[in-house]
Specification:
Elements (H helix, E strand, L loop, with lengths): L24 H23 L9 H13 L2 E2 H8 L3 H14 L2 E6 L2 E9 L1 H22 L4 H21 L11
Antiparallel strand pairs: 1-3, 2-3
Length: 176
């Protein structure tokens, strides 16, 4: 009997300093497609259930938006999240019932209210972010040293892409 052929080693990550200028639309399209696929596979890691089982991805997004941009009127929160006002209103009611947010009168218009994170909401969001980072860290630890260095080198570009992609209205909250 012959032994099975050994599995080929993964291709080393390219050295970013050795990559030429990307100017062909095909190359940019390839980057976009590969990045989309990688993100698609990472989303379940980011959205996995947490110790706070009632913290759904949409509720977490609302808490993150309030952490980054609050206090906000419900209509502004809806616009930032890119969801209907009625949906946001129901979500705010639910978040209020959990104690994760607080409502205060809007000093500009006493008929309206502003929504802000409560101390408990900040703690829940911070715990969720730690859980997510730990899950990602476990997966990053499985990469080779070269792959980890390549990922680290790519972070400034990924952060810039994220910053340039989040435009209000319909802005995706950061820190999910």
């Amino acid at each position: 009997m012959s032994k099975p052929a050994p599995e080929p080693a993964p291709a080393p990550a390219p050295d970013p300093t050795e990559i030429g200028e990307i100017d062909e639309i095909g190359e940019i399209g390839e980057i976009a497609g590969r990045l989309r696929l990688a993100i698609q596979h990472l989303v379940p890691v980011l959205r996995a259930r947490s110790a706070h089982g009632d913290l759904t991805p949409s509720r977490q997004a609302a808490l993150a938006a309030l952490a980054d941009h609050g206090p906000l009127r419900i209509s502004d929160l809806a616009a930032r999240m890119g969801i209907a006002l009625s949906t946001t209103s129901r979500m705010v009611d639910l978040l209020d019932s959990t104690g994760w947010i607080e409502r205060h009168p809007d000093p500009q218009d006493q008929r309206a209210s502003l929504v802000t994170l409560s101390r408990t909401g900040r703690a829940v969001l911070a715990a969720r972010r730690r859980e997510t980072a730990a899950r990602l860290a476990e997966r990053i630890a499985l990469l080779t040293d070269g792959e980890q260095r390549a990922l680290y080198a790519a972070l400034p570009a990924l952060e810039a892409l994220s910053e340039r992609s989040a435009t209000y209205p319909g802005e995706l909250p950061r820190g999910i």
